[in-house]
Design a protein that fits this description.
Shape: globular
Keywords: Methyltransferase, Mitochondrion, Transferase
EC number: 2.1.1.320
CATH architecture of the largest domain: 3-Layer(aba) Sandwich
Strand content: 15-25%
Number of helices: 15
Radius of gyration: 23 Å
Pfam families: Methyltransf_28 (PF02636)
CATH class of the largest domain: Alpha Beta
Distance between the termini: 30 Å
Bound molecules: S-adenosylmethionine
Family: Belongs to the NDUFAF7 family.
Largest sheet: 8 strands, mixed
CATH superfamily of the largest domain: Vaccinia Virus protein VP39
GO molecular function: protein-arginine omega-N symmetric methyltransferase activity
Helix content: 25-40%
CATH topology of the largest domain: Rossmann fold
Structural class: alpha+beta
Amino acid sequence: MFRLKIVPPIRRFCSSSIRYQIINQANKQTISLSTTSTTSTSKTPNHTTPKLELNKLAQICAQVIKITGPISLSAFMRLCLTHPELGYYTTRDPLGAKGDFVTSPEISQMFGEMIGIWLFTVWNSQKKPKEINLIEFGPGKGTLTFDVIKSFSKLVQTLKHEELKLNIILVETSPILKQVQHNLLSGKDLDTSKEFWEAPHKWNGKITWVDTEKDLWEVTQQQEANYILAHEFYDALPVSQFKKTEHGWREYMVDHNEDDGTFFLGLNSQRTPSSAIPETNPRYSSQNLDSIVEISSELHSYTSEIVKLLDRNKAQNGAALIVDYGPDLEIPGMTLRGIKNHEFKSPFEDLGEVDLSVDVDFGAIKESATSDPSCQIDVFGPVQQGDWLHQLGIQFRAEQLYNKAKNDEEREIIKTGYHRLVEKDDKSMGHIYKFMALLPKGGPIPVGFGGGVEE
Ligand SMILES: C[S@@+](CC[C@H](N)C(=O)[O-])C[C@H]1O[C@@H](n2cnc3c(N)ncnc32)[C@H](O)[C@@H]1O
C-alpha cells in the first residue's frame, strides 16, 4: 500500500517570508527581522494603525503582561503552543496537506522503515533485549511509530522463536492527536479512566500516553530497554533569546502595545535571572559582543530524561534517535518562526493559531547528554538526513517499491518521496534535517553514523 500525497513545502522552508518587530528597550530602536536579512530602522511601532482585535489567548497573554510586565519568549511560546484549551497543539491536528505543515514520515513510508531497520540493528547488537519500550516524543499522527514497528517486527520475525514484549509509550500534549494516534496504532479499547491513557496496540502489546517527559519514569521499569524517537519534536520546544551587550547578557522579552494591540520582542535593559545561563556556561559566555543565542531549558529537561532512561537499564541497552533541523553543533541565534497553511507568519500574530518552531541546538543536546558524570552516554552525529538514509539503504527500498508499484501514479509517488527525503541542495530535507543518536557508552558505533551491521 502506498500513501497518496500532495507535496506542499516542508516546515523548515515555507513559501513566504516572515517579518516581525523587535524593539531595543534601551534606545527604542526597532529591528525588523526577515528570514533572509536583518536590517535596522529608526521606526517605532505605528500607533496610527487600527487596533488589532485580540483572540482569547492573546487577551490572556496581554493581561499577563499588563500584570507582570513583559514575559520571557519561552513563557510566550509555551502559552501559544500548549495552553490546555487554546494552545496550537492542544486544539488541532496540524499535519498534512490540509494542515499547516508536512513532515518526513508523512511524505513516505520509507522514512519510518529505515528507522525501523536502524532500531533492529541496534537492538540486535545489544543482544536482543526481550522487554522493550518504543518511546516517541511528539508522535503527531503516529505514522512514524507505525512504520518503524512494521519494519522492525518483520525483521524480528525473521529470527524465529524470538520472544519479544514490546510496549509503546507516546509523549503527547494534544488530546486530539492522542485520538489520531490511537486510531492508527490500536483502534480498540482506549482506556481513559486511569492517570495515563492506555490501549492495546496492533503488534500485541500496550500503548501508554503521557503528557510530558516527567511521567516517563513512572511508566517504565528497570528491566526494560528504552528505544526513544524524537522527530520534529525538539524544534517545538520553547526557547529564550539573549544578546551579549556591552553591559552583559540581556534577555529578549515579549511585550504588548496596548495602543495598537500588537505583541513584540524587546531587549530587556536589565539583567534577568535567566541571564545567569549564558553568563556562566562557557559555550555562550565565549561568544562575541552582539551575539544572539537561543537557549531552551526544556531541551535540557527532555535530554536529561533520555539519559536517565538509558542509564536505568543496567544491561546497558537502549538508544535514542533525534531527528530535526538546526545547525551542526553551533548555537542557533534568532530562528523563531511562525507557520500557518504552509507559509511563514509572524509568531506574534493570531496567538495559538500559528505553529511556532525554532532551529534545534544539537550542540546543546550533546552537552546536556554528556554533562552528568554518573550517566555514561555516547553521542553520535549530527549526520545529514540524505547521508543517513542512504547508509541505511533507502535507495534499495525505493527501487524495490518502484518495481512493485501497480501504475505510473504509484511510481511517481515513490520517486518524488525518495527525492524529497534525500536531496541535498541547501533547501532540501536531505541537507537541512539531521540525525543524532544517544547510546549507553561503550557499544559499537551504530549504522548510519559510521558503524556497520553486526551479525
Ligand atoms: C511538529 S509535530 C511533529 C509530529 C511527528 N513527530 C512528525 O514528525 O510527523 C510536533 C509534535 O509534538 C507534540 N508536542 C509539541 N510540544 C509538545 C510538548 N511540549 N510536550 C509534548 N508533546 C508536544 C505535538 O502535539 C506534535 O505531536
